[in-house]
Amino acid sequence: MRLRLVPAQTSFDFFKRWRLWLGISGLMMVVAFGSFALRGLNYGIDFRGGTTIRTESTTAVDIGTYRDAITPLGLGDVVISEVFDPGFRADQHVAMIRIQAQDDQEAISAAMTQTVEDALAAVVPDIKFVSVESVGPKVSGELVQTAVLAVVLAIGAVLIYIWMRFEWQFALGAVVALIHDVLLTIGIFSELQIKFDLAIIAALLTIVGYSLNDTVVVFDRVRENLRKYKQKPLKEVMNLSINETLSRTLMTSLTTLLALIALFVLGGDVIRGFVFAMIWGVIVGTYSSVFVASAILLFLGVKRDWSKPDPKNSGNQFANVDA
Amino acid sequence: MLHFDTWKRVLIWLLCAAGLILAMPNAFYTRVEQSNDARAVIETGMTTPELEAQAGQWPAFLPSSLVNLGLDLRGGAHLLAEVRVADVYENRMQAMWPEIRDVLRPERASIGTIRLQPSAPDALRIRISQPENMARALEVVRGLARPVQTLSGAGSTDIVVSGDGAEIVVALSDAEKLASDDRTVKQALEIIRRRIDEVGTREPTIQRQGTERILIQVPGIGSAAELKAIIGTTAQLTFNPVVGRGSDPDASAGVGNKILPSMDQEGVYYTIEAAPVVTGEDLVDAQPSFDQNGRPAVSFRFDTTGARKFGDYTRDNIGAPFAIVLDDEVISAPVIQSHIPGGSGIITGNFTVEESTNLAVLLRAGALPAGLEFLEERTIGPELGADSIEAGKVATGIAFAGVLIFMGLSYGLFGLFANIALILNIAMIFGLLSLIGATLTLPGIAGIVLTVGMAVDANVLIFERIREELKTARGPARAIELGYEKALSAILDANITTFITAVILFAIGSGPVRGFAITLGLGLITSVFTAIYVTRLLIVVWFERRRPKTIEV
């Protein structure tokens, strides 16, 4: 007996309340943006400069002791947190120490890191410094610019590609869905104050890629069905298309989630934030391809006369290159 | 119908086999790595039975390229340095002063006395006492200008000479500054490479980034501080005439001179002429040695120009002190006893044996043309890397198993075909990564796990389509064919859009992000290949053998 996620034939009405869904999505975007604007992101040193030190010792981490050792050095804002992971050995106690960028210097100072290490080694004899990373303020500023540029470029490139392959309404729908996904991801990062570093930008772009993948599959079916059923109202064509691709959508989302959850649980704490962003993105991306991208397509309407019998005369020269 | 040309079948199997063979060394990572290292040593001429045994651990006829492990997996140090290109301007201008003085001297009858004035570090200001003949002075100085080769081919010269009241202002032209910056960074890159090679670590990455930056990644090194100690010292060696000696660092040095501290005598400062007689650039060799009292020292030898300059100077200045300056500190200031014609000498100071060895290495590698400013530094301990690899392996294994089981349950026999394709897919990713010598980073592992999840997407699309086509009941062969045909546009569109984001990530990102982009991009290519060709071929072969009347997907 085969495992079926959905019955062979489904006829859910996805667009019964599409305005409501669009409204909810819009509201969530506003909330996410509000959270970002009010709380801000918990930027890692990649974006704000500074130093992080990861320590490991066989004795339990006592944050108070660590703080008492570092405070006299007068380094400004120092954040100390203990790290937990199911993969750690019983006597493996890990802490992360983040020190703000020191105001008076452009570059980073090895001497400062050394003083911190010495101060900690004095109170915790067996402490090891398994990773020490410093980013100067000059670079971190550029990294922010590059990151924003990467996301904007990716969205722009995708907009153009879908416009070429489909119609501008499709492209707009897909891009709004992408912005929705990116905003919601940034929103949850600011709401939960998860560390936002360079790797998260990679995750954001992957989300862009994944969400798009999903949207394009649905759109491809819509395009095909629009040619097949020329008289059917757009709403019905879209409902049919989404129902037809539903089994695939859920299959792929589940296999991807399965892989990501394995990585989230077992992949160690170093990439946990990164994997969390991707899991969130897969869920949001699957949702948005139906309730944002498709709903916008329905809202904008599609010019129906481009699916003429002769594909060479169709409204878009790139639409049939591979058929 | 379900037709596949023989050459296509052969090609597909060959590609799969190539992927598997190329990926194979990675399954025996430590063994292959030891064997490769041993071979590299044997190639240099040294050989011992032990090395031979290590080299023999992996047969020579098999491919031996491995995926490089990134710093976050192997541990090591990462530095991003900015070359202070402007340092060079100052040296250039200082070196120019004697030249300018020499061409102006014969003109003293018309332009009067010439005096160097204090100025910005990247310019020279020279006051003449008879400014009415400024035009003549400018003409003479302009005669020193040399043409600069620029990309635009326009005829620029290296210096700009202008008159400002009674002063001649000489500065480097913009074209020359650009050319000089480029030279400086290239030179710094080369010298950093040589210094790191002298220490002999495995596979360092030394790359230029942008116009003025250098990225240095050295796996296996203990800390970024250690790496900085190797490359951080400029080791700018110069030999300058000494003007005076004192104990006040803020005394007025006089124009064209500077005051530098002594390296080993606290509170002693030397006033020296800023323009050196000879520099470390004229050195051809430097070796650690001992002086006549058995103290560690460094012996050196000049090239012919250096030897001539040094010889002439020592001949003309017997009895005068002479400063040996390293990185703006006076190592020693011996008095010239006699003419030194041979172009070789010895530097003595309060060195330990280790210091003299290091200094010799630095002098041999050449001086960094300009100072470095470190913008970013990261040290990752090997334990953390090992933990990350371990966690990554477990997670990838579980993710892999989960997806395989899930696909098998959902699509039965076809799921099995997809699973074979998925295994080949992962092998091909590793094969390609080893082939291009890419670096696997922690986010890269995440990229592979994501590929495992998404790679089945193309197959899912096809299988779902075949299911749909089966409903219209035109026979299983036709359904399979239509399934592939109709799913193709969705597969291509979906993967191309994702590929675009991977390319953008690769182009803009750096370090780990780039590693992620590479695995993601390669994973897309291999997953599309395995979905449209490998599973299809498997299905076709199965179909030809069995000729089933009905199929269940």
From TrEMBL, chain A:
UniProt entry tagged with the keyword ATP-binding: no
Q: Does the keyword Transport apply?
A: yes
Listed A to Z, the keywords are: Cell membrane, Membrane, Protein transport, Translocation, Transmembrane, Transmembrane helix, Transport
The residue ranges of the Protein export membrane protein SecD/SecF C-terminal domain are 116-301
- UniProt GO MF annotations: protein-transporting ATPase activity
Q: Where in the cell is it found?
A: Cell membrane
**InterPro entries linked to this entry:** SecD/SecF_arch_bac, SecD/SecF_bac, SecD/SecF_CS, SecD_SecF_C, SecD_SecF_C_bact, SecF_bac
TM annotation in the entry:
20-38, 143-163, 170-190, 196-219, 250-268, 274-302
Annotated Gene Ontology cellular components are: plasma membrane
UniProt topology in membrane: Multi-pass membrane protein
Task: Please provide the Gene Ontology terms (biological process) for this protein.
Answer: intracellular protein transmembrane transport; protein targeting; protein transport by the Sec complex
The protein's job, in short, is:
Part of the Sec protein translocase complex. Interacts with the SecYEG preprotein conducting channel. SecDF uses the proton motive force (PMF) to complete protein translocation after the ATP-dependent function of SecA.
What family does this belong to?
A: In the C-terminal section; belongs to the SecD/SecF family. SecF subfamily.
The cross-references to HAMAP family, in alphabetical order and at most eight, read: SecF_B (MF_01464_B)
- Tell me the protein's name: Protein-export membrane protein SecF
The record lists the organism as Antarcticimicrobium luteum
TrEMBL record, chain B:
- HAMAP family given for it? SecD_B
The record's family statement is: Belongs to the SecD/SecF family. SecD subfamily.
Q: Name one GO biological process term.
A: protein targeting
Name recorded for this polypeptide: Protein translocase subunit SecD
Write out the entry's keywords from A to Z: Cell inner membrane, Cell membrane, Membrane, Protein transport, Translocation, Transmembrane, Transmembrane helix, Transport
Query: InterPro entries under this entry?
Result: SecD, SecD/SecF_arch_bac, SecD/SecF_bac, SecD_1st, SecD_SecF_C, SecD_SecF_C_bact, SecDF_P1_head
Per UniProt, residues of the SecDF P1 head subdomain domain are: 259-370
One Pfam family name is SecD_SecF_C
Q: Where in the cell is it found?
A: Cell membrane
Q: How does it sit in the membrane?
A: Multi-pass membrane protein
One Gene Ontology cellular component term attached to this UniProt record is: plasma membrane
Q: What is its main location?
A: membrane
Ranges of residues in domain Protein translocase subunit SecDF P1: 185-242
Annotated transmembrane regions: 394-414, 421-439, 487-509, 515-543
Q: How does it assemble?
A: Forms a complex with SecF. Part of the essential Sec protein translocation apparatus which comprises SecA, SecYEG and auxiliary proteins SecDF-YajC and YidC.
Q: Which residues form the Protein export membrane protein SecD/SecF C-terminal domain?
A: 373-542
Molecular function terms in GO for this entry?
protein-transporting ATPase activity
The job of this chain, per UniProt, is described as:
Part of the Sec protein translocase complex. Interacts with the SecYEG preprotein conducting channel. SecDF uses the proton motive force (PMF) to complete protein translocation after the ATP-dependent function of SecA.
